[in-house]
Amino acid sequence: MNIQFKKGVLEICVLSVLAHKDCYGYELVNEISKRIDISEGTIYPLLHRLKDDGYVTTYLQESAGGPPRKYYRLTESGRKEEHEQKEEWMRFAASVNALLDGKNDAAE
Amino acid sequence: MLQNEQEYIRILKHRLEGTLPKDELDDIISDYSEHFSIGKANGRTDEELWRSLGSPEDVAREIRVMHLVKKAEDVRSCKNIFHAVIATLGLGLFNLVFVLVPFIMFLLLLFVIFLLGTVITLAGLVGVVFSLLQILGLSTFSVWLSPVAGVFLSIGMISTGLLIVIGNYYLARFCYHGCIRYLKWNISVITGTESEA
Question: All domains of chain A, ordered by start, with CATH?
Fold first, then answer.
């Protein structure tokens, strides 16, 4: 898939995963790269940007048999942002799908 | 070159030192160290982790751009916006056309308007001086048909020129804001390299 598409949807993907549960970085990266083929290294800068924008916060939590891990959590404004971006994406995807279907119909 | 955690972290640090403040750099570095250590605890090798993260040079470039654009947004200055624009250019050939060209065009436009306002103001000042000299009988050199009308016309020119310069200042602020918004959109869409995995 085109890289420009992927980069554009990465933010909503990160917000969406965090809306379900708090994640440590590696976990979050795994969740996303399982489904989308992207340089995993670009997710961390994005997390920092979201933190700067006040959409996520971090906290440290002990892990079983290892050093404490840094967890990312959505803030209240992060939840609102997630909601808005999700709605926007759903509408956009529905429009694109409708267009693509229409085009196929016309070609037949 | 050995593709292991130490090397990855070393390159990141090296590329980001001097741009990022110490605490932010440490924060970023800790994310990548944690990524490597958890990955290795899950049985992945240094090379695998390196490849799926993407090259440290690309990651560092992306972090630098984000930081510089944020800085230009927080503290408005010519220096900061220049740094942000130049860093964005490094992200790809695309930006040479879609960032540099419009940026230079806006700079030129702002400069031309500033020049225009300044020239009109100066011409007005010269007009006032000559008209007054003529009224006082100190000069026979006539700028206008009537020296009294000349004074008023010149004052009108000074006001117009100053208004243009002031308007240009607000236009520049507006352009600055627009530039930041465009750069932010640009980095959220353009940056990032194809995964090699």
Answer: 3-107 (1.10.10.10)
Would you tell me which residues 82-101 of chain B have a C-beta closer than 8 angstroms to some C-beta of chain A?
Answer: none
Q: Helix or strand or coil: residue A105?
A: helix
Question: CB contact, 8 Å: B11 with chain A?
Answer: no
Q: Which of B31, B189, B75, B85 is nearest to A45 (CA)?
A: B31
Residue extents of the structural domains in chain B: 91-189
Would you call B87 helix, strand, or coil by DSSP?
helix
Q: Whole-angstrom Cα distance, residue A4 to residue B43?
A: 32
B54–A39 CB contact, under 8 Å: yes
Q: Do residue A7 and residue B189 have CB atoms under 8 angstroms apart?
A: yes
Contact flag A6-B190 (C-beta cutoff 8 Å): no
Cα–Cα distance for residue pair B175/B169, rounded to 1 Å? 10
Mean pLDDT by 10 residues, chain A (108 residues): 68 94 93 86 90 92 83 96 94 92 62
- How far does B9 lie from chain A, in Å, by closest CA? 12
Tell me the average confidence (pLDDT) per consecutive run of 10 residues in chain B, 197 residues long: 90 93 92 93 93 91 91 92 90 83 94 97 92 83 76 93 96 94 83 41
Residue of B nearest to A43 (CA): B53
The helix (H) or strand (E) run that includes residue B179 is: helix B147-189
**Residue of chain A minimizing CA distance to B50:** A41
